[in-house]
Each structure stands twice: as structure tokens, then as C-alpha cells.
Design a protein that fits this description.
eight-stranded mixed β-sheet, single chain, 14 helices, 2 domains, Rossmann fold, 372 residues, seven-stranded mixed β-sheet, alpha/beta
């Protein structure tokens, strides 16, 4: 199979879908790898290591798209890439289709087989390809949240760790998944007062145990959410329903009640965001102020640290990419149910329930597609 690795064209997206070691793995399995010239530069990887690993470096992005059987990307295709799609293409990337109707309809119109990193799901409901980026986003959320709190950014001027004789800042984290639990640990390490809310008691129990009870854990309900966020200095939204649009936990009326200069970092913005006031931003213009609250809603947070993110991403995606290339789409999904859950579109049909529900598009189940 021919594996294509184009350069990412999304604004300030410096990650790349594969490392030279990943190329070497595909080559050793008898596949051909095409890498667009300069694709890895943003992550600090020049073309020469790719060539040394056996890849063919191609000048033209369109040529990579046209020749590839399996196209591996980091982020979803942009409108200017739609014309490069075709019915015999397998697209493997972060897609977040529940929040992107136009792309979903383009994929179905072009009859692309699309497999989303973020919806590949193991039997224990964990998301192995989302986990490394969620971990990085969770760590970054405190870093950027502390920056948002600085006065020059419109923030309250609160130092999260406090100072001698001065209370630490209060951090409230909505969602105790991978990004939320990672954010908890970093916030506690900074010396902040940390409260985390989730609907799953097991996740709260886990955080309580690993932090030795230093973090306050609360069940997530409307009353608790409102009580906590209006008293917070920094709120981190890390809510996720795999493949589906994020529920709006924070209404505009709640945002209005928050203290002026409070920072809000919405990690879940890729799936639509968890606040009514959230809208996507970029690394060059990451923040805006709405209802007096400093919002940070960058849709590709891990791209701020592309070297670390690229290696973490390849560690997670490589085995699944090899499986698709070695066995083909249908056989790989027959043999690996986790991979089958990643299928979002196939031959003009939407095959993921979360995407179907969010966009009101009819569902063709994966079982119907693969004959399972």
C-alpha cells in the first residue's frame, strides 16, 4: 500500500503525522511511503531522516494526495483540500466531524473512507489515539490558563500558586478524563486549590486516590457546576463524549456570574466547546474576552509543542496505521473492533452514531459496512 504524509496546512499546525521511525516501520512491512517536502520541519524533523528511513520525499502536496492509498494526517482536511479527495482514498486523521457538518458532507459526497483517531475505542471505553494529545492538552491548559490570568491579558492578576501569606488561586476542572486528570495533577503541583467535577464516581475516586486527597472531587450537576465556576479563578473545560458534540455545561448566564478576569480554557472546543460563549481561536490570536471572562479556545492546543506532540502521536497511531495497510480496511476492522469504531464515513454513508446524531444525518452502522 502507498502511505501518503502531506504537510499540514491548518494555521499554526506544526505537527506531522509520522516520524522517520514510523516510516521505517511501514517500509519494513513492504509498503511505500510518500512524504511531502518540509512536512516535518515544524516539528524539528528535516527531510533527510525520512529519506534515510526509506520514504520518497515529494515536492507537491497534490501528488501525495493523488498517489496515496492511505493518507495519514494530523488535523482534518481544510476546504482547499476537498478537491483532492476521491472515492478510493482512506483518510486517517483527527476529524471531529460532529462539529463540522461541511466536512462530513464533503467526505460523504466524495465517498471517502474516513477513520477518525479520536473515535477509535477499546473495550474499556478508553480512546488510545486521543489519549496522548489529551494528556498534552491537559498539561498545557494550566500553562496557558496561568498566562490568561495575567493582568496584561485581561485576567484577574492572580498567581495560581499564591504567595507567603496569600491564598492560592482556585482552579475548577470540568471533566475527569485524561486531559482533566492530567490538568488536576499539574494544577496541584503548581500549588493551586483544585476542584474537579465529573459524572463518573470511578474517575473521581481515581483522582482522589492518586493525589492523596489533595484535590476536591465533586459530582457534576447543574448546582455544583454553577457554584464552583462562579468562585473560580481558572476554569478548565475537558468534557468529552467520544465522536459526539460536546454538551454546553456553561450557559451564558453562568459565564455572566463568573468574576471579571476569570480565565476559561476550553479543551473540548474541537468538538464544539462546553460553553455557550466558546468559539474556536488560533495560536496567533488565542484569547478573547466575553462577559468579562478571558476565553482560550485554541482548537489544536498540542500544536504549541509540536516536537513532543508528533512523537507522542506516532507512538499511538502507528500500530493502527500498519494494521490498515497490512490487512486493508475491511479485514482490519473485522479483526480489530477498536479500529472499526473509528470508521466515520464509508462510500457516502455516515457510520458513527455520534456524528449521525449531532448532524442529523442518517446512520449506516459499521456492522452493516463490514458485514459483522
Amino acid at each position: 500500500m502507498i502511505i501518503g504524509i502531506p504537510k499540514e496546512i491548518k494555521e499554526e499546525e506544526n505537527r506531522v503525522a509520522i516520524t522517520p521511525a514510523g516510516v521505517s516501520a511501514f517500509i519494513s512491512h513492504g509498503h511505500q511511503v510518500l512524504v511531502e517536502k518540509g512536512a516535518g520541519l515544524g516539528s524539528g524533523i528535516v527531510d533527510r531522516p525520512y529519506e534515510a528511513a526509506g520514504a520518497t520525499v515529494i515536492e507537491s502536496s497534490s501528488e501525495v494526495w493523488q498517489q496515496a492509498n492511505l493518507l495519514m494526517k494530523v488535523k482534518e482536511p481544510l476546504p482547499e483540500e476537498i478537491h483532492l479527495m476521491r472515492s478510493d482514498l482512506i483518510l486517517f486523521a483527527y476529524l471531529h466531524l460532529a462539529a463540522n457538518e461541511s466536512l462530513t458532507r464533503a467526505l460523504t459526497k466524495k465517498k471517502v473512507t474516513s477513520i477518525a483517531y479520536e473515535t477509535i475505542q477499546l473495550e474499556d471505553n478508553s480512546l488510545p489515539l486521543l489519549t496522548p494529545m489529551s494528556e498534552i492538552a491537559g498539561r498545557l491548559s494550566l500553562q496557558v490558563g496561568a498566562w490568561c490570568l495575567q493582568a496584561e491579558n485581561g485576567g484577574r492578576g492572580v498567581l495560581l500558586g499564591g504567595a507567603s501569606g496569600v491564598r492560592p488561586g482556585k482552579v475548577v476542572i470540568l471533566g475527569a478524563g485524561i486531559s482533566g486528570s492530567t490538568a488536576c495533577q499539574v494544577a496541584a503541583g503548581m500549588g493551586a486549590h483544585v476542584n474537579v467535577l465529573d459524572v463518573n464516581p470511578s474517575k473521581l475516586r481515581y483522582i482522589h486516590d492518586i493525589t492523596g486527597g489533595r484535590i476536591t472531587t465533586l459530582m457534576s450537576n447543574r448546582a455544583n457546576v454553577e457554584e464552583e465556576v462562579v468562585d473560580a479563578d481558572l476554569v478548565v473545560g475537558s468534557v468529552l463524549i467520544p465522536g459526539a458534540k460536546t454538551p454546553k455545561l456553561l450557559s451564558r448566564s453562568i459565564i455572566k456570574l463568573m468574576k471579571p478576569g476569570t480565565a476559561f480554557v476550553d479543551i473540548s472546543i474541537d468538538q464544539g466547546g462546553c460553553a455557550e460563549t466558546s468559539h474556536p481561536t488560533t495560536h496567533s490570536h488565542p484569547i478573547y474576552i466575553d462577559e468579562g471572562v478571558v476565553h482560550y479556545c485554541v482548537t489544536n492546543m498540542p500544536a504549541a509543542v509540536p516536537n513532543t506532540s508528533t512523537y507522542a502521536l506516532t507512538n499511538a497511531t502507528l500500530s493502527y496505521g500498519l494494521e490498515i495497510a497490512d490487512l486493508g480496511v475491511m479485514k482490519s476492522m473485522h479483526e480489530n473492533p477498536a479500529l472499526a469504531r473509528g470508521l466515520n464515513t464509508y462510500q457516502g454513508k455516515v457510520t458513527h452514531a455520534g456524528v449521525s446524531t449531532a448532524l442529523g444525518i442518517g446512520l449506516t452502522t459499521v456492522e452493516e459496512v463490514i458485514g459483522g
